[in-house]
Amino acid sequence: MDTQGGRNIDPADQWVLDPETGDYRPRSDAGDAPAPTVPPQGGRRARREGERRPVPEPREGHRRNGTAKSRKAKRSKKRKALIWTAGTLGFVLLAGSTGAYLLYRHLDGNISTVDVGTAGSKNATSKDAVNILVIGTDSRIGLGGKYGDAGSVGHADTTILFHVAKDRSNATAMSIPRDMVTGIPDCPTKQKDGSSRTISGTPEATFSPRFNESLGQKGRDPGCTMRTVAKITGLPIDHFILVNFEAVKTLSTAVGGVPICLTHAIDDTDPNGQGSHLHLSRGPHTVQGEQALQFVRTRHSLKNGSDLDRIDLQKQFLGSMIRQMKSGDTLSDPRKLFKLANAATKSLTVDTGIGGVGKLTDLAKDLNRVDSEHITFTTFPVVDNPAEGKIHKTVVVDKTRAPALFAAIKNDVSLTELGKKPKAADAKLRGSKADPSQVRVVVYNGGGPPGAAQTTLQWLQNTKGVTHSSNGGNASGAKQDRTTLTYGPDQADQARALAAMMGLTASALHPGTKDLGSGSDMTLTLGRDYQGPGVPLTDPDKPPVGIPQSHADKNVCVG
């Protein structure tokens, strides 16, 4: 330390990183201290142990000499590693990652983490598929009572499962309705004092619990929401990203507003004075800040006034955010990039597996390989709760469509490929079909629910008229993921008839090369994908039919 003018001046403190140029420059507030002649040793990464480097926003009119410009031109490619992260918008930032400056010390200090144990233990990057749970909480803590109930710890108000395929060719963002009735499993949690506590689960009943109770209630942390989603879908959840109301406001402002479009005017205030209080006319708008938050919270003035309607608004908002962040206006403006990275890291809480700017950067660069045209938004398949009569406030899992969507996600099937021509394998399902009385089959359980073979046998005999059928019991060997039907060339018409009854796909049919002869039986082996007699299965190479979807690269009006 040197003492000058009665002040202790540390030479390292006289230099700060300029986010606009990526280089060190003398502090502007050094007062009467002599201008330093040598930047900190080690270049832009140098810093003393425990020191937090000040990180100012880039200033208008900041001049750079020719040398600085030259350095910037040579080094810019090495220094561009964007940190996109965030909550209800978390996967958007991950999907749109490219181009911001890595301000480690400043941004690292913004990020909060939660240890959720094995529920979020995967490394930031992986050669496998990645499943990230993005949770928007309605917690009011720290918001000064602005949105009511200042002490509310919040629930899983908006939840999106973001699945990225193993080869990074496509991604699916599946919104999970908060009012879906489902069981919540036991949940081990880590307390602030380092101790562990297991929060007891809640079994599914007629009207409760709702999915949003998987967070906040009884002290449940995001790991509990991760475990709930894993139980419902059968998909492993690798990481979570949690944000609150402020995230939508700060992020939408950081990108200069998010374009949206409405098919109908919105006046979202119900008779009791509740609602988002959003007032927008029909047509295109650009929303940011408080108005952006109102938009993603709106539901009372929509068609059914439900959470499912609100999800449609949120999907449009998120897709538009992706396009906005990938636009040249954002990527070429250092001020916007700094504001975006700063706002994002301040807004989120993540699991320890991706806690830290470095880990988030690695994840962002990895996931950035997915083009926005191959990012598909959809909604967890549900139906109105039949127990509620005419007034439906809750929904339940659609057991016909949901398994097909989960299977597609598990098998990395892109939902954007519905327009492709059918594969040649579909020819297996075309042609004449035998009468049910002529179908001969032995049913084995090779991975389905207990008793599935007997249940299926009874269904075939009593409902479909397949009288020449028998129960083969449990199949030998390891359990198989997919249901299969094995038959001889002379039984193709029988196979097509049984496939139509059972909802089998072309990939489930396995023709042999040798005729089995009259009176021989086909072999139907039920796999883990089997959900019940007549429940259609999904081809692992094709997207499911009847699943609503939208895409990140397209702008459509909703409302």
Describe what you observe in this structure.
The protein is α/β, with parallel strands linked by helices and 559 residues long. 24% of the residues lie in helices and 19% in strands. The chain has an 8-stranded mixed sheet, sandwiched between helices. The protein has a 5-stranded mixed sheet with strand order 21-20-24-22-23, covered by helices on one side. A two-stranded antiparallel sheet has the order 1-2. Helix 5 (245-254) packs across helix 6 (289-297). The longest helix has 20 residues, at 307-326.
Short structural summary:
Residues 1-16, 29-103 and 418-422 have low confidence and may be disordered. It is built from 13 helices and 25 strands.
Strand order of the largest sheet: 5-16-11-6-7-8-17-25
What would you report as the Rg, rounded to the nearest angstrom?
A: 28 Å
Distance between the termini: 63 Å
Q: Structural class of the secondary elements?
A: alpha/beta
> Which range best describes the helical content: under 10%, 10-25%, 25-40%, 40-55%, 55-70% or over 70%?
10-25%
List the helices and strands and how they pair.
Layout: E1 2-4, E2 7-9, E3 15-17, E4 24-26, H1 66-79, H2 90-95, H3 104-108, E5 112-114, E6 130-137, E7 156-164, E8 171-176, E9 187-190, E10 196-199, H4 222-233, E11 239-243, H5 245-254, E12 258-262, E13 266-267, E14 279-280, E15 283-287, H6 289-297, H7 307-326, H8 328-331, H9 334-347, E16 348-351, H10 357-367, E17 375-379, E18 382-384, E19 395-397, H11 402-410, E20 440-445, H12 452-462, E21 468-474, E22 484-487, H13 492-502, E23 509-511, E24 522-526, E25 549-551
Parallel strand pairs: 5-16, 6-11, 8-17, 20-21, 20-24, 22-23
Antiparallel strand pairs: 1-2, 3-4, 6-7, 7-8, 9-10, 11-16, 12-15, 13-14, 17-25, 18-19, 22-24
Helix pairs in contact: 5-6, 5-9
